[in-house]
């Protein structure tokens, strides 16, 4: 029954798709600064995200807003987690809001690019492509009560290793976790190449531990002279006394990697976009009766307690550096 109702809702929404695509295509190749953005977008203020159309006839003001959270294994869990928040957004925007369970990053990006997705949470790695190809405008991120968010990639060693700085790793072994890990492989590979002109197999011997905790234990027990790890894992291991502070030494710490950002499609009516921003700024993480909201129940597990403002230009600079070093293209396909 639920599936049928959802299908009907989507069918109704898809009737506006032709108009949305027309609006998007009409913005193509305007004579304005683009930067890395697709040529149909403008960036006159240099903030690296698409400007709202100057022609009000191209603003999008749908009766129903579609929200999608970054793809996860079980989207149904997050539909429930976001329930209280989306109900609050209906009050602040005066619109019906529907949760759309996307199945992949590519599908999420294409949905916003084609005008079928209005508000979304995009994961760290997909932000640049969403911004440049879909007109995504990120403006906030979840953080702890003290405003802290994200994590850093660290290169660690152990006392007595003979490694005092990153360059000392030359000729030695550096443990990665796996080739698919950001802080365990991709980020350090890019940053070592860009900042130190150091490349695996040429300047040092790479090893693969499989997991961050394996790398951390390997360094603590002197199995590896150095390793690249996510410091969020190290902090948890230190708290559990799995390793001791005096067993590890950090010789490199990256900028903070942001987590999932939240934002809206660039061509939403400005008043609507402002109300969406207001929703995130004023959402009460606790209900009126003092019970935690569905959002708090789920995301407090990661220590998150509020939304804080961010900018793509500043907070995603390290991700763009990594992408550049890895020769990632933002060209729309």
UniProtKB/TrEMBL annotation:
GO terms for cellular component: ATP-binding cassette (ABC) transporter complex. Pfam families: Phosphonate-bd. GO terms for biological process: transmembrane transport. Residues 1-29 form the signal peptide. Keywords: Signal. Coiled coil: none annotated. InterPro entries: PhnD. Gene3D superfamilies: Periplasmic binding protein-like II. PANTHER family: PHOSPHONATES-BINDING PERIPLASMIC PROTEIN. Belongs to the phosphate/phosphite/phosphonate binding protein family. This is Phosphonate transport system substrate-binding protein. It comes from Cocleimonas flava.
